[in-house]
Amino acid sequence: MTSQRPTSVDIVEVGPRDGLQNDSHLLSTDAKVEMIRRLAEAGLRRIEAASFVNPKRVPQMADAEAVLARVVDLPGVSVSGLVLNARGFERALAAKLREISFVAVATDTMATRNQGTTALGLVETWSDLAVRAKDAGLFRSVTIAVAFGCPFEGEVALDRVIDIARAVAESGVDEISLADTIGVATPRMVEERFAALARAVPGVPMRAHFHNTRNTGYANADAALRSGVTVLDASLGGLGGCPFAPGATGNIATEDLVSMLERDRVASGISLEALRDATCWLEGEMGRRLPGHAAHVTPWPAVLAA
């Protein structure tokens, strides 16, 4: 395990998907497209724009194809979609995506609530999809949900997470993410689990997904960077939550994460000023202030100049 922060990091913007999926305020298709456009202009190069799910279960994603049709060819941006099964994979292919995300789950109860099968069933689903995605030339990212704790089963054994990661890697994957779906991780847990992941699947790039439910998300993000993680998820304004995980609140805010990284001299290639503007615009669309902070405080250089 490394204790040094990297000089640069990639940020995956998950606001248009994970940020919106649990929100009662339904954004229009035009507003979602505008959100993604603003994120791209701010410098985000990986944007998770939609999920291919049953719209009766997740109404915010009912217009997935309509949104993707207008953003899939944004210059210099890899637009991805969340795929949960073979039907979702077919929809992703039809949408001409170049990157897909898949969710494996570390507990059976959460897997049943979220995807209607067991944890092993999801591993088996990925075994099939991994081959098909490779043949289609897609970048394949797999997230292991509730990797730090489950709202139904409580503590999740590290061995359970690692066994799933090994099975996913054996099927084929380009990146593995550990997700703190309900915001119960601590920096020590993050260091421990990513160190174990690195040993279990050497050479596979590691990604981290944190929710800020208990206000530990940013400390966990820093711990992940010091543990060899090269990709972090974040959501504009700190939007987020899971429809099938009681108590899950928002993701770490993209603008707050970028602000922290800038102060630590970790490059992200993203404009904090543009993110601040995008957050304020999104708050107007949502009709409320969002959980993030950086959009509402004076930029640090301006304090020095005052």
Automatic annotation (TrEMBL):
<dbReference type="GO" id="GO:0046872">
    <property type="term" value="F:metal ion binding"/>
</dbReference>
<dbReference type="GO" id="GO:0006552">
    <property type="term" value="P:L-leucine catabolic process"/>
</dbReference>
<keyword id="KW-0479">Metal-binding</keyword>
<keyword id="KW-0456">Lyase</keyword>
<dbReference type="InterPro" id="IPR043594">
    <property type="entry name" value="HMGL"/>
</dbReference>
<protein>
    <submittedName>
        <fullName>3-Hydroxy-3-methylglutaryl-CoA lyase</fullName>
    </submittedName>
</protein>
<comment type="similarity">
    <text>Belongs to the HMG-CoA lyase family.</text>
</comment>
<feature type="domain" description="Pyruvate carboxyltransferase">
    <location>
        <begin position="9"/>
        <end position="276"/>
    </location>
</feature>
<dbReference type="InterPro" id="IPR000891">
    <property type="entry name" value="PYR_CT"/>
</dbReference>
<dbReference type="GO" id="GO:0046951">
    <property type="term" value="P:ketone body biosynthetic process"/>
</dbReference>
<dbReference type="GO" id="GO:0004419">
    <property type="term" value="F:hydroxymethylglutaryl-CoA lyase activity"/>
</dbReference>
<dbReference type="InterPro" id="IPR013785">
    <property type="entry name" value="Aldolase_TIM"/>
</dbReference>
<keyword id="KW-0614">Plasmid</keyword>
<dbReference type="Pfam" id="PF00682">
    <property type="entry name" value="HMGL-like"/>
</dbReference>
